Queue: 3 jobs
Job 1
Amino acid sequence: MANALFPSTLSRKHYVIRWLVMFAVVLASMMFFVAAPMGAAAQIAGLLFGLVVLFAFLYNIFGLSIPRLKNAQISLLALLLVFIPFGVLILFGVCAIAREKA
């Protein structure tokens, strides 16, 4: 199971598919948060949305980007892009366009 969620390398196709699934999960949790009625339900939905975004951010780094950068033989220093504004989108572009070197 750990290898299914956190593979050692990822091809370009698998990277893009997993990234789109992760994006859809974050989008669905955002819609759940927006549609939640006021009160305790909104607080629970807000907490759930925050947790989903946090897990998606961590999974993007450890489950998607690191294996993809290893497969494309790009330095892992490219992960520093996630700490600048819109850097995640730049990193997605780098990982989605880079060819496999293995």
Job 2
Amino acid sequence: MKVLLATVAAALLVTGTASASPFIRYGVQDDAYLSAGPSLEPNLQTLDQLGVGVVRYMVNWRQVAPTKPRHPTNPGDRAYDWTGADATLGALHARGITVLATLVRTPAWANGGLAQNGTPTSKYALTDFAIAVAKRYPWLRLWEIWNEPNLQSFLKPNSPQLYVQRLLNPAYAALHLLNPANKVAAGATSPRSTSSGLSPVKFMRGMSAAHARLDAYSHHPYPVTRGETPFAFRRGVCRFCTGVLSMAHLDQLNREVKRDFGPKRIWLTEYGYETSPDDPNGVSWALQSQYLAQAALRAAAAPYVDLLVQFMLQDEVRPNGWQSGLISSTGMFKPAFNSFMLPIAVAARTGTRTTIWGQVRPGLGPRPYQLERLTTAGWIRVGLPGAVTAANGIYTRVVSAPPGTRFRVFALDAATASRPVIVR
């Protein structure tokens, strides 16, 4: 762990290299939480409170186009129903929140009457829909083609060649022809194989063999076992290491992307830790909060990584649903809510010399903050007043502290303190 933290600290100091991104962005995805209806406006206010700058949104092809349009590239075709997408995307755009549009789910008319995971029979069908979406929302610039196509539950057959030929490459070409500023991510792979799914490595190599076209490779580096941190597996718990590309394997993901596609950017478009007791295999609320901040640090220091998206905002009620939200199913804010808003983590430690990394997400431009240390007299400021973050809200501070020292950051504009981080 010390070696990893030293590497992270060194990377954080090198923000001007061609590979490292000093402008990494953090986002969220929760289509249910942001669906059209009376709760949309108050939920958008929660995004403002969190300082969310990016939202990944699933543009549901099957829902928008339940019947085959006569003029599929025309968003005004009567077969299209944009009601839900208009409400959510319009509201996000009005707030200045960047949207990553993920095109998913095949209509029955486009795959011979199969379920929504059935591969389209024509290479033009999704492309025409992508054009219609781009015309309907001409401000969209970030795109992702499909969701976890390495698993049959999302694309059947889960063939990397068919994914490239019928979904990715035609849509990539069309979106770039419409606007060269469009950036298209491909892959959106799950972190490991299943009984009916390919490992991300096998799927990536199949995409490469099929000559995939992409601006960024997207991936979902979920943990695959309870004993996994964003940096490593705990001793003796790595049951599924072979073929896995989780956050703990971020270096390996980087190498694989470079091997298959060259020096492409990397978007981590789904990530989160499920929590117990709602999920018996989940981690505690406290660990979820800690891991969320550490994952933000890990992504910030990783070469080529430009985006990390938290899935989801609020836990699902159903027992077998997802419980990786920042808010419980009953509406209670978990500690992770604060950790998303004001992530803070120890980036390196040598002797008593400690590097603290964090971000103040609410606000725009350089944001005033103060680093504080807990003493017997309470929380006191560390250093001179007037500290400000970088333009993206990120800060790095080097302090001298013995083990057990607790630090936090107070965001002055938001009038909110981060959760404490303990020097080990």
Job 3
Amino acid sequence: MKIKNFEIKNFDRRLAEAAALLLALVAFAVLGFWYDSTRSNPVQGPATASTLSVTSAADQGPGSLREALFLAATADARTTIVVQVDRIEITTPLPPFVNPHGIGVVAGPESHAEIDAQALSSGPVFDVNGPNSSVEGLTIRNCPAAGVLLRASRFRMAATNIEACDVGVDVAANAADVVLEQNGFAGNRVGVRLAAIPNALVSGNRFNAHSDAGLWAVQSEPDLRKSGAIVRGNQFGDDRMGIVAGNLSMLVEENTFLDVRETAIHLIGEGLAVRANRISGTAAMGIVAENARGVVIERNELDGLSTYGIMVRGSANTLVRANLIHNCGYGMPFVLGDGRNPTTAVDNSIVAPHYRGIDVIGDSPILRHNRVQQAGKSPLHVESLQRPDGSVAKANPLRDGNSFDEREAAVAAIRSDSSPTPAGTGRPFAP
């Protein structure tokens, strides 16, 4: 019996040892698998922004801007490219900005960072096709197309000069959240062209000597989304036209226009408000609202213009309020408007127009509480207009509480509908 009990105990001990060894082998295998997994798939920390330096003025090769853009395109974080050289001449299109984390190109602290695209046959200098990108402190010259072509969201350009290009910054229809501030645009065909403007800010820029316009923002169909564009605090000088805007939700305010050659602000269509701008010099016209609907023009000051301060032509439901026009050829003409949805002119002051204060030509606006003083010829002129098809556009403004100087009774001409002026003769606008 004792031998049997000993054999049982010895068997139990060997069984326990075998079980312990099996558990140890399993644990070792699991530990080995975990260790091998962590070696082949290490835990990644968050990506950090990187910086590349442009140290070569060559168009390509080590240290060039082209190489830096190639490297930035494949980076796993936002990359800033610092241009440390004074001048780069590019001869072929640069790589686009495509990194989804963003690419910034900035001038180094001791660099002029000028990019000359004179040898480029076509295409933009910078093609921004990725979000979260920026350009700061550069000078871009002699572009055959755009200095910057923007086709992405969340872009900022600051303290940059773009000169002698076809278009300075060309914002395509799929762009949004754009900030252009404290830049200089000079001698381009168009300084900034906006095809799409959700959440766009154009602020504190200088526009000079553009052959078409400083800023061009026109849609063929109305795009009146709430988050439109703000054009504020810019300076326009010696441009053919300062701003041309149409069918967009846009606020144009607190800008200065000096010696614009044709028209400071030309408005077309819907969605536009023009407030508190200063327009001075020898331009033919200050603000023109043409075929406009629901446009607001208020609290602007205009002086020294050779012809019209504010012209409203072929428009409806336009509000012209609290503007000051002085020492211009004419004050405000209202031409061929929509009599069922009339324009309203209220609380405007017109001082010392060389010829007439208010012209009403084939239109029936509401004129309320306006003041005309020291008109060279007459404070008010009302005239019906004969259209090319022979029909007559009657002029019958609603007059309420206006204040004209003492010369009004002698010189205000109210022509009868029986003898309207033919359209196109120029008689209503002759001195």
